[in-house]
Specification:
The chain is mostly helical. The protein has one domain. The chain has five helices and no strands.
């Protein structure tokens, strides 16, 4: 029938959030690294005036790759999930609102949920 996440300790909501956010960041980081041309248009103009767009993308892809590995491994979960929340929130703030803003908002909220869950589980 239906299986319940709360009755299967190995498949918890925290694990699902870790996998979902981790794989999202892993895909984005690898795609950004191997096909930076597809991502250049997402870099705000003011960032392009500070740093070369490809250099920025390589740095950002490495940053997101590290975050994805830490999420998937469950290492430093409260800190990493909060940094992921800040990463997605910064995309919303610095890139602006467009047709896919809802996606970044949803990912930011998922990271925030993971952060609050990981903080609450440490208290128990």
């Amino acid at each position: 029938m239906f299986f319940h996440l709360n009755k299967n300790p190995k498949l918890s909501p925290v694990l699902i959030l870790r996998i979902g956010l981790g794989l999202t960041l892993l895909y984005a980081s690898l795609h950004m690294f191997f096909d930076p041309v597809s991502w250049v248009g997402f870099i705000p103009q003011w960032v392009r005036q500070i740093i070369d767009p490809r250099t920025f993308l390589y740095i950002h892809s490495a940053f997101e790759f590290i975050l994805s590995v830490l999420l998937l491994r469950g290492i430093f979960l409260p800190a990493v999930s909060f940094i992921v929340f800040l990463d997605f929130t910064s995309i919303l703030l610095f890139y602006g609102v467009d047709d896919i803003t809802f996606r970044d908002f949803g990912l930011a909220m998922a990271a925030l949920a993971l952060f609050t869950s990981s903080i609450n589980s440490k208290k128990e």
